[in-house]
């Protein structure tokens, strides 16, 4: 189903599961010898899904997880002790999410993912600077992470504050002003686009501009060009819980 690199990763995963299972067994035995208080390890592992290796498959994994979040039919994958053991020595996240600090927009929850599935960066209004861009690039550049999602959201307080600050010519206090400055290009695009709700327009503009910048930067553009990486701009509805893809949707996976 996925790319040609799949068998290798499958082998790695299978090996990891065996090691994890062995470690858990050993741990259980040791605990049992210490006394009767240790609970038996009977939970079935939830870590059998192979990490997607293509941009399209990675996005489908997130979209499927978001559907479960919207419906309430959550799977809570990759959150048990087996998973912790599996990723303790080596991580292999299939996606990078850059989202806002907003307490209502936690990527691992709204995509129904678990431990070791995602690299997550969160800043006010998902603004970037060199340190954040470097952090976003880490997975794709060092281990072939196939997907970056720039995730904006409805009623973003950072965007609203920046919009009003720039519009009124009144700088935000302290270091908050750095966020407003980083959001100025999105403000200017929102002013050009117009629309009934300029703050929402600006929030969407911020997503699209940030995703475009990442997609075309000198480190990531070569990966995008050869189809090994997609940079998706997306938007989260606080009202419905649904993530809408705005830009950069990769080809759908085969099968
Ligand atoms: Zn926000």
From TrEMBL:
Residues 31-57 are annotated as: Disordered. InterPro entries: Carbonic_anhydrase, Carbonic_anhydrase_sf, TAT_signal. It holds the Pfam family Pro_CA. It comes from the Bacteria. Residues 1-32 form the signal peptide. Keywords: Signal. PANTHER family: CARBONIC ANHYDRASE, CARBONIC ANHYDRASE 2. Catalyzes the reversible hydration of carbon dioxide to form bicarbonate. Belongs to the beta-class carbonic anhydrase family. This is Carbonic anhydrase. It comes from Streptomyces brevispora.
């Amino acid at each position: 189903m996925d790319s040609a690199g799949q068998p290798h990763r499958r082998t790695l995963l299978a090996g990891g599961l065996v090691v994890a299972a062995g470690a858990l067994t050993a741990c259980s035995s040791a605990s049992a010898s210490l006394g009767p208080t240790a609970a038996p390890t009977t939970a079935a592992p939830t870590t059998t899904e192979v990490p997607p290796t293509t941009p399209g498959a990675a996005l489908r994994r997130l979209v499927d997880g978001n559907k479960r979040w919207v419906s309430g039919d959550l799977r809570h994958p990759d959150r048990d002790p087996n998973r912790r053991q599996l990723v303790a020595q080596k991580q292999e996240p299939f996606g990078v999410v850059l989202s806002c600090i907003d307490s209502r927009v936690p990527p691992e929850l709204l995509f129904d993912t678990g431990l070791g599935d995602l690299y997550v960066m969160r800043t006010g209004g998902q603004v970037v600077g060199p340190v954040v861009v470097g952090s976003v690039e880490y997975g794709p550049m060092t281990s072939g992470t196939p997907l970056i999602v720039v995730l904006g959201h409805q009623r973003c307080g950072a965007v609203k504050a920046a919009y009003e600050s720039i519009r009124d010519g009144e700088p935000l206090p302290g270091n908050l002003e750095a966020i407003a400055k980083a959001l100025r290009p999105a403000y200017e695009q929102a002013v050009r686009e117009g629309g009934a709700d300029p703050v929402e327009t600006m929030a969407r503009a911020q997503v699209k501009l940030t995703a475009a910048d990442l997609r075309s930067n000198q480190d990531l553009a070569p990966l995008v060009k050869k189809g090994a990486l997609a940079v998706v701009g997306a938007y989260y509805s606080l009202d419905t819980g649904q993530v809408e893809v705005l830009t950069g949707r990769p080809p759908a996976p085969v099968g």
